[in-house]
Amino acid sequence: MENIVRFDSVSEYNAYCNTDTRHPLVSVIDLSKSDKKITIRLNFGFYTIFLKDVKCGNLRYGCNYYDYQEGTLVFLAPGQVMGIENNGNLYQPQGYALVFHPDLIRGTALGRHIDTYSFFSYEVHEALHLSENERKIIIDCFQKINQELEQPIDKHSKKLIVNTIELFLNYCVRFYDRQFITRDTAHKGILERFETVLNDYFQSDKPQTLGLPSVGYCAEQLFLSANYFGDLIKKETGKSAQEYIQSKVINTAKERMFDRHKSVSEIAYELGFKYPQHFSRSFKQHVGQSPNEYRIHNN
């Protein structure tokens, strides 16, 4: 059984990394100061962001490995487990970690919308790959937080630190937007493959067994996390993945309305609706006509 080390507090992780605790709820850690470690899994009770500087072991999430190279950022929400592997050999970590406890941002604007930073739920092959200029901006944010941590804690400390963390996260949103465009090879044909997944779904018996297709199901078929997939589709189409699926459902319904041998209820069940009235309500909301009205006016 793998050894899992759990850190509930920032100070515990600071001690593990040979770093002084200057604030109980936030820290910027120079990983090169950490002792050499072997294969281990870490469970963090706080937000953790790794910036990797050089090749030094692999990061594992679940059964898979992060697309984790030099100059990349990986984001972990509280409760997530990260594996560090280097074939059982000793290695010297290089890079930085920004860690902050949920209590730091509780009651702040960042605390109220931290969930909108969906990259904290990204999975394998979805790390943020930084350009040299982007890396300098990230390091600058880390340095600003460090400089504030070196000052005595006063009534301004929390606001200044939280605002800098929010600035850092907003830069990461911008850099991910850039990555969705520049990593064209990794994302090539995502819409076509998404469309294929939906077509195959409606041509199978899955609607009857699983119901309407979900964002999670489609993301899984494309080997992406639901959040990363949703953000990618939003950047590509301007629609959320759920809106795209709903549009596909309605367009498929329109096509099947031309088959007079099938009742509206049969079509509803074929598409994965549990109740025909839910289908009729959704159809009218999107089309402006009930299924029967649409059928009368288009036959």
From TrEMBL:
Signal peptide residue numbers: none
Record keywords: DNA-binding, Transcription, Transcription regulation
InterPro entries listed in its UniProt record: Homeodomain-like_sf, HTH_AraC, Tscrpt_reg_AraC-type_HTH
Record has Transcription regulation as a keyword: yes
Domain HTH araC/xylS-type: from-to ranges: 192-297
Keyword Transit peptide: no
Source species, domain of life: Bacteria
A molecular-function term among this protein's GO annotations: DNA-binding transcription factor activity
Identification of the protein by name: Helix-turn-helix domain-containing protein
Source organism of this protein record: Flavobacterium supellecticarium
